[in-house]
Amino acid sequence: MKGGAPSTPAVTAVRTEQDARRSEEEQRDVSVVPADVLPGGVLAAEETTADEAELAPRARLWPSLVAVYRAQLSRARVARIPLLFVATFQSIGIMILMRGVVDGGGEAQAVVAGSAVLVVAFVALNLLAQYFGQLRGSGGLDHYATLPVPPAAVVLGAAGAYASFTVPGTVVTAVFGCLLFGLPLTHLWVLVAVIPLAGAALAGLGAALGLLAPRPELATLLGQLGMSAALLLGVLPADRMPEVVRLARDLLPSTYGVEAFARTFGERPDWAFVLGDLAVCGAVGVVSLAVATWAYRRAAVR
Fold first, then answer.
1. Which residues contact 233 (CB under 8 A, 6 or more apart)?
2. Span 206-236, pLDDT tens digits
3. Where is this region: Disordered (predicted)?
């Protein structure tokens, strides 16, 4: 060969060993570089992820509740207003029918108070049970499950939106009933407490019925049965009911709102009893909304 020594197997082996040592030394030199200084390193990526997780805002109950309430209010504004007129006219028609049977006194007070709260029961109990039943049957709960909002915000927001539609109909029914039966209008301001407390109790019950019902048709049936119970046990005077029916009446959440409103028609209302009835109604509302929240979580994970 020109200009070099002949290539033998021994020389080739020596060169291969030298190349291997040189590659090992280069790998050692590279391995001493800390991984966290590399822009694409694993530690850098972990630190970036941790920083982003710390900076990500958490969903709070009150802002989520307001957002769900506004969304439900704007969505149900067009669809539920005709039903609100139906609920109001239904309660006014019942009072006109009862006018031929009841002359006045405590029975008239019970009829007017029960008819006013019946508007709340029609919307907050019946319609809300139908809404959550259809939402569960159509898979609409999957949409709310993907939102970064607490389950309580979904239930409270929908319940508050439906209960808000009852305010005009309840006031109109109460005023018409007072004029029809000759009752005083002095203490109608107590509706400011009766409507939200009775609405919370009935809305929680309606939402629980809709979420626990296995089928939308059954949820609609349960909502209508609940409204019928509020009609029969709330509008009819309690003095004419059997003892067993009175016991069932005490178990109905809207009864305490009816009792609180009916007590204000007297010449000298006993405000201690009024506040007691409102307190019971509020406690029942908290329990029913808690049950509805549990039912929502149970239905959302299935």
1. 241, 245, 248, 249, 252, 255
2. 999 999 998 999 999 999 998 888 888 888 8
3. 1-29
